[in-house]
C-alpha cells in the first residue's frame, strides 16, 4: 500500500507537514465511499503513530494533531483505539525497549481522546496495567472469566417438564383449548409470555411444545403459523431450525419411521419462510451421496435384468435361477430405511409449495424422486389443481361432465393457469420433473393431451398478431418437448391402454409428419435408455414380442394379432422394430404379420410407418447381396411388406414417399422398389414383363377392360387405397417431382450410381427405375383429374429443356394431358353446335386436335437439331409420341373374351344350387353391369379409333418431308421414334409395330415400308446388346409384332396383293422425292417378297448366333429373351431353326456350372424351340428357290441363308438412283440385254440352280453334273457379261446395306474421316457387305443361268437402278447361302463389279455409319464389334486353312456314318468323281479369273487383308461353330482310320455343295488348287483345320 504520509511532512512537520496531514484527514473523512475512507484514515493514523514509535515525531506533536483530527468523524476514537491495539501487539514483540516506551507515551498523551472502556476492551491487560488503567492484570483476567461463566453457562430457566410441571401444564392447556372462538394468536402469545416469566419456563422448550401441539392440530394453520412467527421474534433465528432438526434426528434410527405430521409442519414452516431449506436439509437422512449410489445400483440391476432376458437359458439352469431370484426379492422386501428428504418433498407437494419442492428435486438424480409413487401422485395432484381452470375452459370434450377439482386452500400454492402462456410457465415445468411417471395418473395424461389438442387448434388458426405468433411458436416447441420427455415415456409405462394411445393420436395428427417422426425417433432410440424402469420395460417388450412371433402362423392370426395389439398400445416402437427385423429375415412372415396388425391404434400405424422408414434407411445394412448383382432380400421383403401394409391399413404415406424422393435426389435408386410395391398394391397397377399377349391386348382397351383382363391378380377394392395414395402425393406436391427424379435417375443409374457395380445389377436398377416410372406415370394418368394433371405437368419443351427429362419419359408424362385436352375441347365443340352427322363429329374432333397439338408441334422443334425436321415433320413426330394403342385399334377379341367369361360366370351362378337367391341376384346384377360397361366401352373406343384414323388420313401427306433421302427419313424415324419408344413399355412395343403398319396402310408419301422393316430386322446385334433385361423383353415383343405382320403378308398371295401390292411402301425403286407414280414393275412382287422375308429370317439367325457366341453375359441373356419373345414367328425355316438349336444347346452345356441364370434361360428357350420344330418348314417351301421362268423379275434368287437370295429386282436402292451416272445406265442396258439372250438359251437346260442349303443333297449332285456339261460351252460368254453388269441391282437396301444409300457428294466428302473413325467398330458390317458382294458375284458366275427370264420391263428397271453394287450384293448373299447350306462353303469366285472399289467401300462405310447411328449406343457397338473382329479373324484363318465344302449338320452325320460303315471302294469311287469335278471347276475358275479387271484384283488383296477376315466371319452360317467341333472329331477319327476315308468324305461333301456353289470367291479358288495337293496329303490339311477351328472357338 502506498504511504499516505510522505517523509517530507514529518521532516517539515511544524512548517507545513502538520497542516498537510490535517487537510488529508479532512479530505478522507469527507469521502463519500464509507469503506474506502475508513481504511485510509486507519492507515493515515497508523502511519502517524508509527513515526512516533520509531522516534521520527514527538508524542506531544502527534497528540496535538490527533486532537485536531478527532472531530472529523464520530468513530474516530474507535479507529484510534484499533490503531493502538495493532501497535500494542507489534511493539510487545519488539526487542527495542525505546519503541515500546514511545508507544506507551503516545497512548498516555492521547488518553483524553479515547475513553477508558474502549481501551480496556482492546488493549492487552499488561499494557493496561503499564498505562495505569487497571491495578493488576491478573485480577482483571479472573474477573472476566467469572462474568462470562455467569452469562453463558449458568441455567436460568426450567427445561424439563417435571422441573416445573405446573407451568408446562398451564402452557399445554393454553395451546390445546378450543380455538374456534375469538381467540387470536396474539392473545395466546401474551399468556405464554406470562407463563414463561411466572414459572421461569425455558423458551426453547416452550417453542418445542408449540410445535408438538401444532403437529397434533394441523387444521389450525391460520392460528399456529402467526403464533410461531411472533414467538420467533424472542428467539435466535436458528433455534426453530435446530429444534426441528433435533426432532428429525430422533426418528433416524433404523427402526424409526418419521410421522407424516412432522413432515407437514416442516413443509408449512418452509412455505412461510420461517426456516430456510438449506438449514433444515442438512439434518435429514440419507445423504445425497447415498442417494446417488442407490440410483446407480438401480440402473445396473435394470441392465442385468435385460441381460437375463436376452440370454438363452437351458431348462435345468432355469429352476436354479428362479430360486436365487426369489431369495433376492425376499431380501429386498425388508423395509429400506426411511428417506426423510422424500417425505419432506411429498409434504411440500401436498401443500403446494412447488418452489421448495423443486429445489429438493434438483439436488437428486433426474426422475429419482418421482420414481417413488407417492411423490409422483402428489405432483400429479398438484398439476391437476393448477391446470383446472384452463382445462375446464378449453379441454373438456363435448358431453363430458368430469369432476371439478377444488383449488388448494393456501395462498402460496402455484397460481392456477388461465391461459396457455401460464400453462407453459407453471405446469410444463412440473411435467418435466414427472417424466415417465405421469403414467401413474392416466386421467391427468388425458387432460394434458386434450390441452395440447386445444392449443394446436388455436395454433393452426390464423389471424393472430406477430407477437402472439412468436409466443405460440415458443409454446409449440415446449409442447413438443413435453410430448418427447413426458407423454411418450409415460405411455410406455402404462399397461396397454388403447384409449390413451388414441387420445394421444388426436393431438399427434395435428403435427406435421416431420415432427411426429422426430418424436418417434427419440422415443425409440433415446428415451428407453434414460431410466431404469424403461430399460426393463424395453427388455420385457422384446421378450414378449419374441414369444408371440415364434408362434405366429397363418392359422392363429387372430389370437396372435390381439397379443400384438395389446403389446403395441404401450411400446409400439420396440415391438415393430423387432417384427420388422424378423420380416427382413423371413419373408414368409409378411402375410401373417400384415393380417395380425388389424388391432392396432391409429398412433401405432403411424409409428409403424416411421419404423419402416427407419429400417429402410439403416446405414449399416447393405442394399446388395454379396455377389453384387442383386438387390438384398431384406430390402425386397421390406418393400413387399410396405405395399401390403399401406394398402390394407390407413397409414399416412407422406413420409415414405418423401423418403423415396430424398433417396432419388441423393442419386440412390434402390428404394424405388418400395414405391413400385406401394403403387402396385395400392393402385393395382402391375408392371411385369411376363404379360401374355392376351393381357397386352386387353391393356390396349378402356379402363374396365384393363381391370378385367389386363392384370394377373384380380384387382379389387383399390378405390380407397389409390385415393389415399393420390391425396398423399397431391397434398405434399410429390407427384411430379417423383416422376422427374425417376426419369433423370434412369441415366443416373448408369453414369453415376452404377460406378463399380456389376453390369447385371446396373441393368436391374435401371429396369426398376424405368418400370417404376411407367407404373407411377400410369397411376397418375388414371387417377388424377384432368385439372390436377394439367396443372402439375409442364409443357414438353419445359420438361425436356429445363428439367432435362429424357424425351421418351417426357412424352409418356405428357400423353395423358394431350388426350384429356383433346377430349375436353371436342366435348366443348360438340356442345356448341348440335350437329349429329358423323362427318361433323370427325371435323370437330380434328379441329380440337389441331387446337391442342399446334403448341406441341411448336414445342417439339426445340428438342432436336434443325436438320432432323428436313426429313420428318414436327407434326409427325408429335403425332407418333402422343398417340397410344388405344387410339390405333380396338381389341375386339379381348372385349369378346371378357364378355364371354362373364356369360359363363352368369351361367355358373344360375346352375349353382347352394347359393342363396338374394346373393345370386346380386352376383348376376354385378356381371350384367360389367358386361354392359364393357360393351359400352368397346363402342366408345371404336368411335374414337375411327376419328383418329380420319385425322391421320388428313395429316399423312405432311408427315415425311424426305428432303435428303428416303433412307435418311427411315433412319430418323427409327432413331427418334421407333427405337426409343419400342423399349419403353410392352404396350409401346406393340404400338410401334402397329404404327409402322398404319403408316404403310395410310400410303404415306416418302415412307418405304420395305426399307423400314429391313432396317429393323437386318442387324439387331447392337440394339440387343445395348438393352437391359426388361428392355430386351420389350424389344422382343416389338420384333414379334413386326414379324407377325410380315408373316401374315408372307403367308398368302391374296393378303399380300391386297395389303401391299400397290402400296408406295413396297416400291423397289425409290425415285426422287415427290415422284411416286411407278408402274407395276416398280412394285415388289409376292415371290420376291418371300425371298426378302427369308433374308430377314437369315439375318435374325446370324445376329442371334453371333450374340450367343460372344460369351458376353448381356449379349447371351438378351438374345435369349428376344428369341423367346419372337418364337411364335421365328424360326420358321428348318435349317435356321437347327442352327439356332445347336448354338443354344452349346450354351446350355457351357453355362450349366458357370452362370445358372443363363443356363435356365437357354434351357427354357431350348425346350420351347423343340416344341415348335413340327411347325418349321424346309427352305424351299418358305420361298421358291428356283423362281419360275415366267416371272418378270430378273434375279439371282439363290436364296440361301446368306440373304443373297434377294431377288435382284428388290433393290430398294434409295441412293443408287441418285448416284448412278447416265454412262453406267447405258452400259447396263447393253449388258442386261446380253444376259437376257444367254438366259433364254440356257434356261431350259438348267433344271435347278440352287444352293442345297443342306436340305437337297441328292439334287445337288445331278445339278452339278449338268452344270459341268453346260458350263464348258456357254459359261465363258455369260460370265463375261455377268461380271460387269451384274444383271440387275441386288437387294442392297435390304441388307445392312439398305441403310447405306447416301448422296454421292456426301459419301465422297466424308469418306476418309469415316473410314478412320469407324474401321474397327464397323468392321463386322463391312465384312458382311463385302461378303455379300463376293457371294453375289460368285453366284452370278456359277449359275450362268440366271434362273429368271429377263423381260423388258425388268431391263428398264435395271437401267434405273445402279446395277453393279446390287449384283455384288446378290452374289455375296448367295455365296453366304452356300456357306450356310454346305456349312462352310469357302466362297471361291471372282468379285466382279463395275463400280470402282473406292465408291463401293465408301458407300459401305456410309451404310455402316448410318446403321450404327440407328441401332446402337457407341459404347456397345464398339465392344460388340471388337468381339466380332476377334471372331472374324479366327474364322477367316479357318477359311484360309480349310476349304473343304461341308454339309448341313444332319446330312453330314448321315454321310459320316455311311462312310465309316461302308467299304473303301465306294469312297474311292467318290474320290475319283470328286477329282473330276474339281478339275472342271478349276477350269471354270481359271477362265473367270482371267477376266477379272485390275481393280478387282486390287480389291481381292484388300479383301483378303482388311475385309477378307470379316467377310468370312459374317458369311459364316449360323450353323458353323458347333459343327467345327464335330468336324474336328471326325477328322481325327478319319485320320486314324485312313487317309482315303477322309478324302472320300470330303469328296462327297464337295459334290453336294458344289452343285449349289460352283462359283467360289477368289482366294477360295486359290485354296481349291492348294487343296488338290492337300487331298493327297490329307493329314496336313486336317491339322490345319483343327488349329483354325480351335482358334475360332
Structural overview:
There is one protein chain. It is elongated, with a radius of gyration of 55 Å. Helices cover 71% and strands 0% of the residues.
What's the arrangement of secondary structure elements?
Blueprint: H1 7-11, H2 13-29, H3 34-54, H4 59-69, H5 76-93, H6 97-109, H7 116-122, H8 125-131, H9 137-152, H10 165-176, H11 185-199, H12 203-216, H13 221-231, H14 238-250, H15 260-271, H16 277-281, H17 288-310, H18 315-333, H19 340-351, H20 354-362, H21 373-395, H22 420-434, H23 442-460, H24 466-493, H25 498-508, H26 513-525, H27 532-551, H28 557-570, H29 572-585, H30 590-596, H31 602-616, H32 633-648, H33 654-665, H34 672-683, H35 693-698, H36 703-710, H37 719-731, H38 735-753, H39 759-783, H40 786-792, H41 796-802, H42 807-832, H43 838-860, H44 874-882, H45 885-888, H46 892-911, H47 917-955, H48 966-982, H49 986-1001, H50 1009-1018, H51 1021-1025, H52 1029-1051, H53 1053-1061, H54 1086-1110, H55 1113-1125, H56 1134-1154, H57 1156-1172, H58 1179-1182, H59 1216-1219, H60 1222-1242, H61 1257-1283, H62 1304-1318, H63 1323-1343, H64 1352-1360, H65 1363-1381, H66 1397-1415, H67 1418-1441, H68 1449-1461, H69 1464-1490, H70 1494-1515, H71 1520-1537, H72 1539-1556, H73 1562-1576, H74 1578-1592
Helix pairs in contact: 2-3, 3-5, 3-6, 4-6, 5-6, 8-9, 10-11, 10-12, 11-13, 12-13, 12-15, 15-19, 17-27, 19-20, 19-21, 21-22, 21-23, 22-24, 23-24, 23-25, 24-26, 27-28, 27-29, 28-29, 28-30, 29-31, 29-32, 32-34, 33-38, 34-39, 38-39, 39-42, 42-43, 43-44, 43-47, 46-47, 48-49, 48-50, 48-66, 49-52, ...
